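Weekly sync, protein design subgroup
Attendees: M.S., D.O., the rotation student, P.L. (late)

Item 1: inverse folding check
M.S. brought a backbone from last month's batch and wanted to see whether the design step gives back something sensible before we order anything. D.O. pointed out we never logged the input encoding, so this time it goes straight into the notes. Structure tokens as presented (264 positions):
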């Protein structure tokens, strides 16, 4: 296997993703070749059912590749044990059944699980990382609230703080702006952009907020018709990647404003 550049956080080689049922393979996308580096903010885009969640699940080791490789720290993900993986990738799934009865600080502290001993006792280093994560996301004022008392936007920030406390080189988020209003969508994605630069972590997220992703991300992964395109927003716009992203004639991509418009 070729060794990765020291700035590479995760890469794939001829990766095919999908689901196996008995002897049948349901292929979602194929020949995915991408490389995400430290400090990069990368969005996965595509219409409903294109395969965004499947890609994130495969990159985080939850779903096995159908073919090809996912490589983290020069090692295939299949050969990485779960505790090592938990120190490499933190995963934020908005719909996950997390106890909303925990306080904010307790939920953020769960991010330290990969490092704590079997009774889960937190060391001073753990506490420092928890407080630092809370400070980075600017939620000091709600740290003692119960999670069920929070708005969706506040809860999303708490989940991001938990991922930061886990202190991994890669954070993966599946639709982190679902249920948020336009202001909070922009706020959360701008926060992710700032965190990627301030902490030098790679942050990868799936989203339907294409206009915001075009403005904020370093790179974009587009999944369409089982194929992926990977590049900077400028490269993808230039190659016409957005022109046929959606079916029909309802919306069109406007190159000048780099955004989608309703066809009048
Ligand atoms: N556990 C599963 N088993 C079999 N097929 C699945 C499974 N999960 C998803 N799929 C199928 O894989 C395809 C891609 O689904 P996926 O959830 O990855 O898309 P998505 O781009 O994240 O969609 P959305 O934007 O609606 O969340 C779909 O056809 C879906 O039905």
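Designed sequence read out in the meeting:
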């Amino acid at each position: 296997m070729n060794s990765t550049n020291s700035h590479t956080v995760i890469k794939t080689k001829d990766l095919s993703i999908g689901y196996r049922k008995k002897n049948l393979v349901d292929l979602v996308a194929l020949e995915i070749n991408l490389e995400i580096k430290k400090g990069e903010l990368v969005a996965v885009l595509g219409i409903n059912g294109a395969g965004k969640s499947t890609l994130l699940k495969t990159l985080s080791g939850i779903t096995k590749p159908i073919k090809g490789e996912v490589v983290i720290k020069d090692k295939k993900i299949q050969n990485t044990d779960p505790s090592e993986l938990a120190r490499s990738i933190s995963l934020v799934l908005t719909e996950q059944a997390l106890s909303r009865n925990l306080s904010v600080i307790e939920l953020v502290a769960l991010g330290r699980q990969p490092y704590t001993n079997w009774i889960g006792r937190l060391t001073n280093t753990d506490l420092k990382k928890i407080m630092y994560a809370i400070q980075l996301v600017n939620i000091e004022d709600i740290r003692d609230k119960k999670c069920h008392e929070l708005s969706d936007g506040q809860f999303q920030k708490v989940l991001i703080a938990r991922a930061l406390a886990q202190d991994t080189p890669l954070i993966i988020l599946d639709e982190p702006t679902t249920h948020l209003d336009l202001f909070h969508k922009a706020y959360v994605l701008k926060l992710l952009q700032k965190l990627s630069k301030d902490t030098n972590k790679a942050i990868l997220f799936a989203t339907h907020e294409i206009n915001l992703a075009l403005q904020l991300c370093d790179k974009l992964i587009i999944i369409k018709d089982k194929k992926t395109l990977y590049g900077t927003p400028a490269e993808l716009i230039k190659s016409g990647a957005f022109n046929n992203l959606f079916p029909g004639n309802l919306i069109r991509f406007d190159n000048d404003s780099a955004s989608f418009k309703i066809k009048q």
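Discussion: Helices lie at 52-59, 82-86, 104-109, 124-136, 152-166, 182-199, 210-216, 233-238. The chain is about 30% helix and 30% strand.
Action: P.L. to compare against the previous round before Friday.
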